[in-house]
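2024-03-11 09:14:02 INFO receiving multi-entity request
2024-03-11 09:14:02 INFO entity count = two
2024-03-11 09:14:03 INFO echoing inputs for audit
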Amino acid sequence: MEQWISGDGTVDVAAIMARIREKIRGRRDLGLYTDDEVLELAALKLQAFADDAGIDPELLARLMADNQNWNISPDYRIETHRRGIGAKAVVQLKKLVRPWVRLYTDHPVSRQAQINVYLHYVAHNLVREVVRLQIETAALRNRLAALEKEGPGGGRG
Amino acid sequence: VRVAFVVQRYGPEVVGGAELHCRWVAERVAERHDVEVLTTTATDYLSWEEVLPAGVSVVNGVRVRRFPVARRRRVETFDPVANKVCFFEHTDAEEAEWLVEHGPVCPDLLDHLRAHEEEYDALVFFSYRYWTSYFGLQVAPAKSLLVPTAEHDRVLYLRLFREFFRLPAAIVFNTPEERELIERVTGNAGLPGDVVGTGIDRPATVPIDEVAPRLDLLGDFFVYVGRIEPEKGCAVMIDHFLRWQRETRSTATLALFGRSTMSFSENAHVRLMGVVSDGEKLAAIARARALVMPSRHESLSMVVLESWMMKRPVLVNGDCEVLRGQVLRANGGLYYRRYEEFAAAMDVLTGQPAVADRLGAQGEAYFQANYAWDRILEKYERLLARAATGGRPR
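2024-03-11 09:21:47 INFO inference complete, emitting structure
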């Protein structure tokens, strides 16, 4: 039993939390993975999927970030590749038309943005669970192999 | 001093941390000053439906003046604009639209403030994010106090609040973390004000020995108190608890007190206790191993204070700066950021009852030193005097 209460009868929360974190780090030596390590492995797997799918690396970086800057938005910047007066006219025309376009596009685009967030969340969590299960399966397989080596009645006798 | 408290909803029938906070402070300040509460006729913040009659009434000895709400909140119009301003690039006009959709739009309250502002020496606004606070505070900012009750969410990042936080004579922060958060996010360093928080009203009767057996809470149990919904971190908390329980074969129970808006399978280890009286709630906390607070967004967790008042430790979500800061300052519990820390903390709290009891006692000492009503009211007196002199410290 660990001693958490100091001589003067007080308990230091920061010290307990430091010990807890230390113990969690120690589990790595026993071949047990922390949640952070599972996250790292899951990120590698997601990256591998993206490579296979040929996704633009810049988009992938945004998908892996901790925000939602990758998502679609009903807003869009009005631009043109033209130059001169023609360009101004085109931009003005597009600006004029935009409210009517957005009248029809805002709702479905917003809805799609929410669906994207949900699917992104589900996919990331599923991959994380798969990684966790793979680790557990590997550990169990190793244990089984070790037990088989010992043979019946082996080990502790 | 004549003081008006302005709050979006008010009354014993209103469920909500900021509103309860306001009511408790108003009732205490009313023992020393002439207090009037200006509020709406609504009790539900999701609809702003008018439930209570408009006009003047008295609630627990405090004069309350209610004004009708001009428009209901509708999911179809609120959600799209909330989604837009919180997650996407947007215009100032869209932020203004969000404020109206968020509500409660109450022009009569604003008219009353404009017409009678001179009759009040100080105005105290609760919760920065509501229409009533945003526009009401601008009527007489020099004699206004703002109790922001800000959480670390996307609304705080809206541009319309940057200037707003510079307006009041002083800000009544709940915690040092809330102050740091507001100053950082809104780019307003050195805002005038003080960290105050709130005291806790203890009911006359807390049937400590009677509640746990009556509710069949036998053996080791943990409690959660509040709205039971995923946004409050309850889904993750239940998942963590069941995983810990399976791994350790613990017989401990997690008892959830409050109204549930999420579906989950009750079993022998996770039980929904529903809504109980304040006395019963405190009695259950007093007999629990610890209180669990899994929310990531809190400006001041009153149930954490209640737990310390009952000398019980807390286990909080360490991703919430406010909760982590409170726990570390009080030495009154443990925190977790992921499952492994949750499990390790549960092991300590269940495996070493003396440590849990000590953490609870330290929490209670911190509560008495910082959240006893005398200390809270002393700070309010200073801030009200400051507001009454137009923002100049007395």
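2024-03-11 09:21:48 INFO post-check: Residues 353-371 of chain B form the longest helix (19 residues).
2024-03-11 09:21:48 INFO post-check: Chain B has 15 helices and 14 strands.
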